[in-house]
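Both lines are quoted verbatim for reference:

——
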Amino acid sequence: METTLVGRLIGNYTFSLFETATVDPKVLTELFSIYRDWQETKIQMISKNQEEIENEIEVADALAVKLLKRFNYSVSEMKTTSRHLSGVHALQVEIGELKGRLTEVLSNCDALSKRIASEGPESLRSSFKPFAIATDTQIISRSSTSPGDLNKIQSPTKPS
């Protein structure tokens, strides 16, 4: 038995169209009924496939929107980070300059305190504690040093 449409339509019936020159209306009705059933089956398969494709498109669209939102967020964060990082070098230079100035001020204070201790009036010498500069052996963490912490710096030669 043939699986094509023509094979299904003609193969089910054994009649000779050429001998009678007319087609039995019942046979013709049955042929159209078979054809209609075949068409409906194909329509159902196509509709099912179309629904599956539409569902997959909806899922793909939802994922694309989600990915686009994530991408836009990442771009925004990268721009913000870039703006923040663009000022880092200038801040490093400024911190270096401030560190140099602070070292100079501390050195001047140390020299002044030594001068007061050696040449100053007796009333100042007795109430004066020498000022000490932090040395390389004292490590001040950049991330944890606050202005209040600078007051806690002790001389490495004097115990606290």
